[in-house]
Amino acid sequence: MPCEQHGFRREQQTDQILYLCQAIRDAHNFKPTHCSVAALFDLTKALDRVGKYELILKLHDSFNIQGNTLSWISDFMQRSFIKIKLNKTVSDTFDLSQGGPRGSVLIPTLFAMYLAEIGKVPSSVA
Prior knowledge:
Layout: H1 15-30, H2 52-63, H3 67-78, E1 81-82, E2 85-86, E3 89-90, E4 94-95, H4 106-114
Antiparallel strand pairs: 1-4, 2-3
Helix pairs in contact: 2-3, 2-4
Protein name: Putative RNA-directed DNA polymerase from transposon BS
GO molecular function: RNA-directed DNA polymerase activity
Keywords: Nucleotidyltransferase, RNA-directed DNA polymerase, Transferase
């Protein structure tokens, strides 16, 4: 995953990006002719919007995950079922079309991989 990505990674929490922004700002003061740009996204609840098919495609195309590993992850993601309980009434079980199993330690890593290319600068701009 790209070093620029700070969410969902050990020892690279999102508060560290604030220190990076301050360092860029301080450096910019020494060379005022240069321009610095930072894009910060608050992705609260964003995992709930990740399409399962798009995630599997990204894992295959961008990370070259294939075979049994990709099949296992696909199966893992497809088994996302929930029930809703309101007072003493419980709904039928239904499938979640987006997101993944709640509480899994694998989900933050898969989400970070899903977003891995968001920080890449297109070659036409670089």
